Each structure stands twice: as structure tokens, then as C-alpha cells.
Amino acid sequence: xxxxxxxxxxxxxxxxxxRTLRDQGPVxxxxxxxxxxxxxxTVTSIxxxxxxxGLITERPPETPRPSxxxxxxxxxxxxxxxxxxxxxxLSINEIQLVVGDxxxxxxxxxxxxxxxxxxxxxxxxxxxxxxxxTVCAQQLNEFQRLAGICLAVQGVVSSxxxxxxxxxxxxxxxAPISARLAERFHCSVLLENDANCIASVLAAKPDYxxxxxxxxxxxxxxxxxSVLINGVPYLGANGSAAEFGHSKYQPGGALCACGRRGCIExxxxxxxxxxxxxxxxxLPSGDSAHPSEQQMQTLTQQALNGDPAxxxxxxxxxxxLGYGIANILALFNPDLVLITGSGVRGFDAMQAAMHHAIDxxxxxxxxxxxxxxxxxxxxxxxxxxxIAMALHATDAQAxxxxxxxxxx
Amino acid sequence: xxxxxxxxxxxxxxxxxxRTLRDQGPVxxxxxxxxxxxxxxTVTSIxxxxxxxGLITERPPETPRPSxxxxxxxxxxxxxxxxxxxxxxLSINEIQLVVGDxxxxxxxxxxxxxxxxxxxxxxxxxxxxxxxxTVCAQQLNEFQRLAGICLAVQGVVSSxxxxxxxxxxxxxxxAPISARLAERFHCSVLLENDANCIASVLAAKPDYxxxxxxxxxxxxxxxxxSVLINGVPYLGANGSAAEFGHSKYQPGGALCACGRRGCIExxxxxxxxxxxxxxxxxLPSGDSAHPSEQQMQTLTQQALNGDPAxxxxxxxxxxxLGYGIANILALFNPDLVLITGSGVRGFDAMQAAMHHAIDxxxxxxxxxxxxxxxxxxxxxxxxxxxIAMALHATDAQAxxxxxxxxxx
Lengths: 408, 408
Prior knowledge:
Order of helices and strands of chain A: HEHHEEEEEHEEEEHEHEEEHHHHEHHEH
Radius of gyration of chain A: 24 Å
Pfam family, one (chains A, B): ROK
Largest interface: A-B, 49 and 49 residues
Helix content of chain A: 40-55%
Number of domains of chain A: 3
Oligomer: homodimer
CATH architecture of the largest domain in chain A: 2-Layer Sandwich
Shape of chain A: globular
CATH topology of the largest domain in chain A: Nucleotidyltransferase, domain 5
Protein name (chains A, B): Xyl repressor
Largest sheet of chain A: 5 strands, mixed
CATH superfamily of the largest domain in chain A: ATPase, nucleotide binding domain
Strand order of the largest sheet of chain A: 6-5-4-7-11
């Protein structure tokens, strides 16, 4: 049943207050009102309720007012212990678990080497169950409750149905993982594409706030993408949109990890670069399909030091990336294309060929004014985004629980 | 200044009533209320105001109620004479002018052969001025006023600034045409990409109502596209999104009309098919860059009749189209891809190769469940869409004029 309109606006205002406190840290009540266009009476009433529910706390300002006049304003802030969320990032051969508090800060992070491609769907469920249980046993006593879980996965997911449709990290398909975790941990479970988590972090940065149509390309083992349209991730009909890595550079070209030929990923991903390099160089033996960070850094350094074979390989990767980005410009005409991911380590060796390919592919009118920039990689970015998205998704739930308890 | 909320909802309800009458034709007041969730008292008050302003008329139902009981319901309908709009479709070597009445029906249509590529921006302005003036002199006496003009143009336009950025029909660029026409004709001027006009007509059809993410590809002299996301045309940062024809099939491949190489258009457009055919056949002489409809029908017929060279050319066009659509599926994951435009005449000769290329390009998980269909071409579809969009854009203006006159 729909709430009466005054309850709806009370609810929206309460959500706005919580999100402002999460974005800005401690804020005085009067500023909370001004920032959200809410009357001071309403802010006072909302903050009284949130204080009583333990979702926020009060603290005095650290310094008196510079003018020396007036009473220092009391600041309110989120109570970080009010709840926590767990974000699990699932990528090839690695699982990262991060615990975030109610204010959005990372409180704990751990990495596990796991041969992900050897897992069955049941194995993955058991593994996640075990890892989340362990982290909860260690961390949860600091928090009032576990509000939610975010699972950030490389590949195609349906956020709506909570199903991993297809991931390069996994050998099985169509696994309805969210429902099982929700049942096990009695909390909401959000399933997200890893690139969308990263895009949500980047889109919040002041540098990119004028870019409502933002494309984020993630270079790495595979190549991922997130497309934000008016700031919202575009998912498509069943969650498989923005699969830039499998758009085409050369029909019938190099073999891709997906099994088809000529994908951008088959030229510009880590495994593609390593495969091309192994034709030219005596590389230390290893798993050529999953080169290590150290191996990739060695290759990149050789290209940057002027090794002609390595330069050609990175230039061809840049050309594939450039032709792919040309299609993105022609089809999405975004404000900004941001290139990041661990593979951005090799961007300096690719970018001249990439820009050349874009100019070669598109007339100026279709090239447009889109900015194309790279952005330093932070391996925690995915989980930071996942925590923010999980908190955002569970705020509504937190409020409905509080409302139920205040009614009872 | 924002209207007080009761005025805002009155205004929104009035717009909803007008649009329901345009979509459905004559409707009883009680049904207008039910269809829009408006109380009968409000519908009575709104329709009284619209009647007084001459925007709607009353008519008795044509037959008594089948039950024979009760008084027959009086229907209200839009007054078609309340206003008219003019849509001008500008394509290579042709200008079409259509007059639509306030109910959205086409009242007049005319075509003019014009060597569009020989026009300067001033020439185009003079030509449009002359053609619109003539059609208004002939038609406008039937209507209370000219509410708006829609200019539907092949190519890249900025609807926001009213500028034709780049059109294959024109040799000049960046022409701010809307402001000049608005000044000349004292009405609102809407500048639209022709494919968006067509998509707006198709999206309204019952067959496609479950397809909020709809891609329409227009084959013809060039290749255009419209992408509707949640039913709204996606325009990108400056209006040059959805340029499918200039996404790439083969880097460094066939020469495109844009001046670059390897675009989908350079394989699957009319001029590309005709150019490829002229290498194999002794075709009647003519303007190979702008083959006529009759010439294209001859080529298509030869392919369908089993001529091996023509079959190869149409299959290669189908393959280019298929690889292009594979990128659309990977990047947009739409509910439906609809292929139309005059070039759909050759679709039967292309489609086997097209489907083969899509399967070749994408694994099943990325191919997804997107329907890919063709749709018969109607050369008046662009203008029908332009009239609907112009009326939609000017309804708000009609109401504010009526409100101003009812206040004065």
C-alpha cells in the first residue's frame, strides 16, 4: 500500500539526511536543512528520530566559531556502528572481502587466492558462505547488524534476478546466487557488475561531476565497461549491456577468451598482450592465460623502454582499443570516456596508436567533444563502490525497520 | 516561477486529456477520467475549459447504447482545426512537406526534388522559408494557427541548440536553422534526427509496447539509427549518438560517404550496394552515388533471382550489418532491433548472412534474447513521427496561451 503523501516526503527527507551525512561527514542540523531544502523543524524532528534509533550521533564542533560569536553548532554524524555491509569482489583467481561501516568507510579487507575456474556453482556458494561467515564472526560484534551484502562480479550479471549469467572467472553459467546468500544471511544481497561498482565511485568524484553520460573502460585480464546515462548504470534488457570487450575490432581476427574471434579483448587485455609477446620473446614459463601482475609489468616496461616487438604489440592493442572507442563515440556520444583497471599500467604504450585509430575511424563531427582520459587504478575501488551501492540499497530497509520498531 | 502544486496538477491533467484524445480519438468524459486517473469533476471542469478555448468539440455517439438503457454518452474529441504543424523531412535530393492537424492527422503532403548537396546554408533557409510560406498560404486558412514546425533531418543534429551539425544531404555544417525559422514563422521549431521520428512512430505500435529499449536501424541511401532507452530517444552529449552507419565493420575497409573507411554504411547502404554491383554488371549509367529506387529494386531483384555476383554483394552487406548489430547487442542489449528504411527492400537477400554473422560474433550469453525483426517501410513514417513530436512539444505552449487568454 502506498504511504500517504506526508509520510512519503518524511521518508524521502530522512533518506536524504542519511545520504548527505554519508557523503559529507559530520554536518550541523541547519546545514542539513539547507543542503536538502528541508525546514529546520523537519530536520530537528528527523534527527531526533534517527538519534533515538541509534542511526546517528551528536558531536560538538571541534573548534569554536572563528567570529567568537554565537554558540558553536552541534554536528550530527552517522553512527558507523549502526550497521555494516560486506562486499565480495569475485575475479579470476581471486576473491576479495571488504567490510564497510554504516558511514561507508572500509573497516576490514582480505584477499584470497582461489582457483575460481575450478569451482562449481555449489562450490562457490559454499566458499562464499564460509568466507562471509568467518568475516562476520570476526567483525560483526562491532556492529548492530549486517545490513546487506554486495557481490561484485566480472562479467554479465542480472542484478534484477540476482543471477550470474556469465563470468570469465567461472566455468558455470546462470547461477542464481543472490537468493541463496540472502536466505543464508538474512539480509539483502545486491549482485553487480564490477565495472558498475567502479563507475559509481568515479562518477561521485568532483572532476567528473559535469559528465552525466560517462563511459568507464576497465583494462585488465579481461576488458569491462560501465555506461552511466544521466548518472545511472545502463544495464540493457537482461543485464548484458556494455560488453565493450566483446565488441569487434576485426571480424575473424584473434581468438578471444569468450571463444569467438576478433573481440577488442583479444587484442588489448592482459592475456592477449602476453600471448602476443610470447610469440616474440622467451618469457619465463607460467600460466599464459592468466599472466601475473609482475609479468605484465615486465612486458609493459619493455614496450616503454623501446623494445620494437613489444612496441608493436602495445600499438596494435592501442589501435584495437581506439577502434572500439570510436564505436563508443559514434553510438553513445558520451561526455567522457575514462580508461582504468589494472591494465592501465600499459596505457602510455598504447595511447598514441589509440588516438590515431580514433581519428582514423571518425570524422570530426562524430568524434565530437568527448574527453578521453585515463585514471590511476586502485584495486580497492570495486569494493568501495560495492559498499556504497549496498548501503544505498539498504538505507530504505533500515528506515522501514526503524519505522516498524517505532510503531510497535 | 513554479506554479502552485494544484495548478501544476491541473496543467498535467489537461495535457493528459489532450494526449489521450489524440491517441484514442473521440472518448466519453467518464472514460477520459478512468484512463488518466482523474476525478470526474476535474474532467468536467477541464473539458469545459478546453471547449471554451476551441481545442476540443463535443459529438453525440453514433449509435444508441446496445443495452438500450441509459442516455448515450456524449463523446469529446480534439478540434482538428485548433492548430496545425508542418513537418519538413530533409533527405538527399528530396524535401517532403507535410501538414498535420491538431488531432495528429496528415492533411497535406508534397515532395520536391532538390539538389540538396548544392545548397548553401542561406539557400536552405531561403528554400524552407519559401516552401513553408507557400504551404501555409494554401493550408493555414483551415486552421486557427500554426503551432509549430518540425524539421526531420538525416544525420547529426543538436535538438537542444536547433543546429544541423552534419548531414549527408548537405555540404555545409553547423547550421543554426531552428532559431531562424522560429523568428520567421513565430512558432516553436523542433529539429530532429529522422530516425528518432520513425522510432517514435514504431514505439507507439502495440506490437512493440513491451520493448522499452528499442533500436531502430534505417537502411537506405545512408544508414541511420535511433536508440530508445525506456522509450526516450538517447541523444548523447551533443546529439551525435546512435550513428550506427559509421560504426566499424572493417578497419581500413571500403570507403564511406563520410570520407573514412570500413563503416557499416560503406557495405550495406544503397550507394555501397550499387557501387559494388557496378564492378560486376553493366548497369545503366546514372548517378552511382545516388542510385534511384528503381535501380536499387533492379539490383535487389537480381540477388533474389539467384545472380551469384549480386548474392555475394548482398551477403557481404548482410555480414557487415550482422557484425554491426552484434556490437549493438553487446553494447546496448536492447529488447528489440527493428530494421526498416527504404533499403529494407533488400533485407531478404541479406538476412541469412546477417544472422550468421551475429552468431559468429557473439556467444549465446551476449547474443541474449533480443528480437531482431524487419519492418515494412512507409516513406511517410518520418513525417508522421515529426508531426506527433511537434504536437507533443507544442501542447504545453497551446495550454499556456489558453491560460494567458483566460486570465486576461
